[in-house]
Every structure is written in structure tokens, then in C-alpha cells.
């Protein structure tokens, strides 16, 4: 199944649909998921340094390219700079390690993962914590300091497009104004309970594309940090979504994916279940009516993610629209 793309300000095409890989570290499970996804038509894979799975993704992509089943230009890889590698002297080193792990010469889209830089332990990318277990903030490095290093890697051809993740609209606009290479994409929490209306308006104005993370509400999110502060809410069980699934003879996941893509967002639902991987990409053969889109737009707002570990950081702006 071929899915649509949206243009980036670089001229490249961002597939509107791809596979999320957060919390998937098991070698066999991820390889099976990736092969199922690519065979079903997925052409975008979303990863990050912090997911610790870039080497597995690299192996599978290499397997497909080396056997002629895929050309490099047919697959779009998004990855992200960890919050511990924002310092100018760390950026290139980190990106080079990611390129090696991915077995690639370039990454299609590279994002600053989190707006709040923190320090790492000497000689590793493990975050530095104080004696209470709290992250040690890097209060010196600004967004533009990090961006300038990313721009060098863009000009060197190692990163084909640049963007940010979890930035507020204000932070995106500030960076946009200072940047030589303008941000091409922002990746943020976005689903029926958190629709990012203001950020989407700013993105339209600036010509920045938006990728929705947690498009299904990330039902497995709490296991990543059981001691974190996770608001409750499950879009997959929302009564209106259940009703629309019945009406259109689709699954609730297919309704949630269609809603976001019909609004022009790129989506990256994660699944390790082969049946669901195929189900999720089968969301493009129907349209939600205008009336049903409006009804979904009217849902009560609940933010399901937060950056509670970075509260108190000078660049903390989580929840600002
Ligand atoms: P999500 O895609 O909204 O939800 C994934 C969860 O939904 C998994 O537990 C999955 O379970 C389940 N699921 C998938 N398809 C389903 C279906 N058809 N029916 C019912 N359940 C289904 O949440 P997410 O993984 O948090 O977000 C997606 C991706 O966005 C991530 O994987 C990651 O790549 C990215 N992300 C980025 C950030 C950031 O800071 N930039 C933060 C969070 C996520 P199974 O695997 O068992 O199917």
C-alpha cells in the first residue's frame, strides 16, 4: 500500500505515515516489525538515539537495500539528538555514532529531541544525575548553539533536513528566526485529546511540517517511567471514536490515524504486532466526513505526556502552546 507524502521546505517528501519504534529494543521483535512494515508499504521509520535501537534498524535497512528490495531513496529515516548531546562539542560525535549504527551515509530528517539540554557522564552518553537521582541540567547551551552544529552537518550532507521535537510554538519561532537552515519539521504529542491548534497555526505560517507522536494516545507510555507523572486518557477507547469505527467499518486506530492525516499531519504509530502494523497502514482508503472531523475536533483536551523530569530547567516550556 502506497501512502501520501507532504513536502518539506528542503524539497524532499516526508511520508505522511510511518512506524514509531519507541520502547522497542528487542532485536527479534523489532526486526520482525520492520520487515512486516516495509513489506506492507511503510516508507518512514522513526527512531532516536535514546531508543537504543538504531543498530537494529540499520541492519534491516541494509538487508533490504543490499538485496535490491529497497533503494536508499525509497526509505525515509527520522532520528533525534539526545538531550545530553546538545553541547556544540558533542553534536557531530553523536550524529556520527548514529550514522554508523544506522549503517547510513545520511539521515533524512534529524530532530533536536527535547528542548532542555542536560549533562552526560564523562566518556559516555549516559545522563549525569545528582545524588537525588535528578538530571544535571546544561544551562549554558542554547538552542541556536546546537542548531549551528546541526547546520554544519546539513551542509556536509549528513543530515538532509533538520527539525525539533517537543519545542513550544514560541521556541520554534525563536529558533526559526535565528536559523540559516530553517526547521523543516516539528514532532510533538498530537492526538484527539491534544490537537496542537496553536502550534499547527504557527507551523502553517512558517512552512514547517508537523509529525504527531503518540497518535493513538500511547497506551504503553507509562511503562517507560513507572514513577513518572502520567495523566490518564485512552483515545483508542473514546466513545465517539468507537462510534465512528462502527460507522465507517474501521478500527479505532484507523479512525485516529485518519483524523490526524486528514488534517495534514504526519503520523508514526508504533506497533510490534504484525496484524496491527498492517491494520494501521490501511487507514487511507476512506475519508471522515467534515461533520465527523468537527466532532473529533471538539473533544476535551488532555495532555498525556509531560517533561516532568525537566521542570526547573531554564528552557522548560512544556505545556505552552
Ligand atoms: P502510539 O503510537 O500512539 O501507541 C503505541 C501503542 O499502541 C503500543 O502500545 C501499541 O501496542 C498500540 N497499538 C498500535 N497499533 C494499535 C492498534 N491498531 N490497535 C490497538 N493498539 C495499537 O504511541 P507511541 O509509541 O508513544 O508514539 C508513536 C511514536 O512516536 C513512538 O514509537 C516514537 O517513534 C515517537 N515518539 C516520539 C516522542 C518524542 O519525544 N519525540 C515521544 C513519544 C513517541 P503494540 O505494539 O502491542 O501493537
Automatic annotation (TrEMBL):
Substrate binds at residue 113. The active site is at residue 51. InterPro entries: AKR, Aldo/ket_reductase_CS, NAD(P)_OxRdtase_dom_sf, NADP_OxRdtase_dom. Residues 18-299 form the NADP-dependent oxidoreductase domain. One of its GO terms (molecular function) is oxidoreductase activity. It holds the Pfam family Aldo_ket_red. The record marks 80 as: Lowers pKa of active site Tyr. It comes from the Eukaryota. PANTHER family: ALDO/KETO REDUCTASE. This is NADP-dependent oxidoreductase domain-containing protein. It comes from Caenorhabditis remanei (Caenorhabditis vulgaris). The lineage of its organism: Eukaryota, Metazoa, Ecdysozoa, Nematoda, Chromadorea.
Amino acid at each position: 500500500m502506497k501512502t501520501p507524502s507532504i513536502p518539506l521546505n528542503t524539497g524532499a517528501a516526508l511520508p505522511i505515515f510511518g512506524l514509531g519504534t519507541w520502547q522497542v529494543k528487542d532485536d527479534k521483535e523489532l526486526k520482525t516489525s520492520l520487515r512486516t512494515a516495509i513489506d506492507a508499504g511503510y516508507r518512514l521509520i522513526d527512531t532516536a538515539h535514546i531508543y537504543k535501537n538504531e543498530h537494529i534498524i540499520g541492519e534491516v535497512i541494509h538487508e533490504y537495500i543490499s538485496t535490491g528490495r529497497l533503494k536508499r531513496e525509497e526509505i525515509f529515516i527520522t532520528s533525534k539528538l539526545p538531550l545530553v548531546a546538545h553541547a556544540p562539542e558533542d553534536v557531530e560525535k553523536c550524529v556520527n555514532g548514529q550514522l554508523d549504527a544506522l549503517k547510513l551515509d545520511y539521515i533524512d530528517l534529524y530532530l533536536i529531541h527535547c528542548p532542555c539540554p542536560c549533562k552526560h557522564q564523562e566518556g559516555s552518553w549516559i545522563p549525569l544525575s545528582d545524588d537525588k537521582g535528578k538530571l544535571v541540567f546544561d544551562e549554558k547551551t542554547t538552542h541556536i548553539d546546537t542548531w549551528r552544529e546541526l547546520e554544519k552537518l546539513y551542509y556536509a550532507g549528513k543530515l538532509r533536513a533538520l527539525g525539533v521535537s517537543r519545542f513550544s510554538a514560541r521556541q520554534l519561532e525563536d529558533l526559526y528566526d535565528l536559523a540559516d537552515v530553517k526547521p523543516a519539521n516539528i514532532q510533538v504529542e498530537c492526538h484527539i485529546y491534544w490537537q496542537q491548534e496553536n502550534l499547527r497555526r504557527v507551523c502553517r505560517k512558517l512552512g514547517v511540517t508537523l509529525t504527531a507522536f503518540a497518535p493513538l494516545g500511547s497506551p504503553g507510555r507509562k511503562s517507560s517511567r513507572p514513577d513518572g507523572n502520567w495523566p490518564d486518557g485512552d483515545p483508542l477507547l473514546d466513545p465517539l471514536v468507537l462510534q465512528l469505527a462502527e460507522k465507517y467499518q474501521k478500527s479505532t486506530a484507523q479512525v485516529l490515524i485518519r483524523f490526524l492525516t486528514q488534517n495534514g499531519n504526519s503520523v508514526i504509530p508504533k506497533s510490534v504486532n504484525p496484524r496491527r502494523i498492517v491494520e494501521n497502514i490501511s487507514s487511507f482508503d476512506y475519508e471522515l466526513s467534515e461533520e465527523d472531523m468537527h466532532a473529533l475536533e471538539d473533544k476535551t483536551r488532555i495532555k498525556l505526556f509531560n517533561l516532568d523530569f525537566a521542570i526547573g530547567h531554564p528552557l522548560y516550556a512544556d505545556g505552552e502552546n
